[in-house]
Amino acid sequence: MTNKLEAERPLSPHLQIYRPMLTMLMSIAHRITGASLAIGFALLTWWLVATSMGPDAYSFVQSFFGSFIGRALLFAFTWALIHHMLGGIRHLIWDTGTGLDIPTVERFALGTIVGSVTLTVLVWLIAYYVMGGL
Amino acid sequence: MATPLKRVRGLGAARHGTETFWRQRLTAVANVPLVIFLIWFVVSHAGASYDSVRQSLSNPMVAVLMLALIWSSAIHMRIGLREIIEDYLHNKLCKTSSLMLATFFAAGVAIASTYAIMKISFGG
To answer: Domain A35-130 has what CATH class?
Structure first.
């Protein structure tokens, strides 16, 4: 009886009911980038600890970051960091009670995506320029 | 009678009021310039030698900003990870152990990074 009632009571629609929307994807991306930054923090810690340990540990960590996997990880970290930062600024603006209308929210979403990709590429171009790779 | 006002005055069900909410905003604001500093620091030292990186990290200004970044981020990360865990993990054992792990991880990276910065700064 109880089970039957539970099955028949109205249920709130969940994720799978909705058509994916940009704003919804941005919310999910903010969580995923935030959680992924934990890995980035671990990488930063590894780099700092290796630098404090000595030249051997430093050259090992540098050779890892210089490898294809290392560079791919760092590139993903850069993007996640910038995307989460821009998303965070967006949230801080919302906290003031402004920019909550749908057109502005949509523009913020697009701006965060375009901004994070552009800035990530720019940061990497400058990094390669500093290394003399450009 | 527990009116909504009384609940707020008693700082809500968790007794922490809006403390966590506020702390997440405070660290977020601090993290914006600190993250820009980190990106600038890493990019300007891309492919740099061990000696030059060590020397830069022992600069008091750099060391203090790094420490600020580490602690602000660690606090921000712990709150964020906890929120995700509380939203998605409902099994009591799984949730509690994940919450503990999140705290251990945040504390672990913060303590290790701090120790590294101190060691480099004081020439250990």
So the answer is: mainly alpha
